[in-house]
Structure to design on (287 residues):
């Protein structure tokens, strides 16, 4: 993104974009090494104590929009997940699955003021896409949705294709993946996930949703414990596609109904006719 440094700064003022911070030395803005700052402290959300690489951290979990109240300026690690896209519902035809919300993770972000936290809503069925999440300047887009017979919507990760429409693409300048394409009228595409594309539908079988990102290390957990931003599974005339790791909803088949993306995971909704899951924001700092 373009840099927009403040006008008329005072000496030692700082400016942060993403994971990079600059300091004004009286004549120019200089990049600041993260090691020059210690970790700050803050309150908000739900607080817990975690251990990462043998060190104690406080982690603040936001599942609804609120404020991160910075009580001591310094460094923070921030993870933001956008709301998942919703699946379509195409009547007697197969519908595509919802794409996952965006996933953004940064370490060593300098904050010296309160930050607005916004949690993106999961997209409803037959809607545009999931809601965007943010913590201050850290932004994660919502996932793409499938709307009736139209092409799937683009988003952080694209929606899966249904009959008569191609796969949705990832966009908005964030890391994500495309949705899968449909196989005639018997297998729709899975929604894209944060770490993998949605699978294409095949004859009678819906495509699997793309897997999300493993957030376990950020949360101080064993690898493989917690994933966010999985794509929704496609609808199948015989066998449904399963949602991707990270809250993706399962698709529909003659024996099973579809399921929504899990709340506060950014998972895409399963096809046919399920909503996406809401996003989440995590903030941690060393104790």
């Amino acid at each position: 993104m373009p840099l927009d440094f403040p006008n008329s700064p005072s000496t030692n003022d700082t400016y942060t974009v993403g994971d990079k911070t600059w300091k004004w030395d009286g004549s120019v803005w200089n990049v600041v090494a993260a090691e020059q700052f210690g970790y700050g402290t803050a309150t908000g959300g739900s607080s817990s104590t975690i251990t990462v690489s043998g060190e104690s951290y406080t982690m603040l979990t936001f599942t609804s929009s609120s404020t991160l109240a910075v009580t001591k300026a310094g460094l923070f690690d921030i993870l933001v997940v956008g709301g998942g896209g919703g699946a379509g519902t195409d009547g007697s035809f197969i519908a595509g699955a919802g794409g996952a919300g965006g996933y953004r993770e940064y370490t060593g972000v300098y904050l010296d003021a309160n930050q607005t936290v916004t949690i993106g809503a999961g997209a409803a069925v037959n809607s545009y896409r999931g809601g965007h999440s943010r913590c201050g300047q850290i932004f994660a887009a919502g996932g793409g949705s499938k709307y009736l017979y139209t092409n799937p919507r683009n988003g952080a990760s694209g929606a899966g294709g249904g009959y008569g429409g191609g796969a949705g693409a990832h966009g908005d300048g964030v890391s994500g993946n495309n949705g899968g394409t449909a196989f005639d009228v018997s297998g729709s595409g899975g929604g894209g996930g944060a770490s993998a594309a949605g699978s294409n539908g095949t004859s009678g079988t819906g495509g699997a949703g793309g897997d999300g990102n493993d957030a376990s290390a950020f949360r101080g957990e064993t690898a493989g414990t917690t994933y966010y931003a999985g794509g929704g599974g496609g609808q199948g005339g015989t066998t449904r596609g399963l949602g991707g790791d990270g809250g993706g909803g399962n698709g529909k088949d003659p024996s099973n109904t579809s399921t929504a993306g899990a709340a506060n995971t950014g998972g895409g909704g399963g096809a046919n006719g399920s909503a996406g899951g809401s996003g989440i924001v995590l903030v941690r700092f060393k104790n």
Summary: Residues 123 and 151 are 16 Å apart (CA to CA).
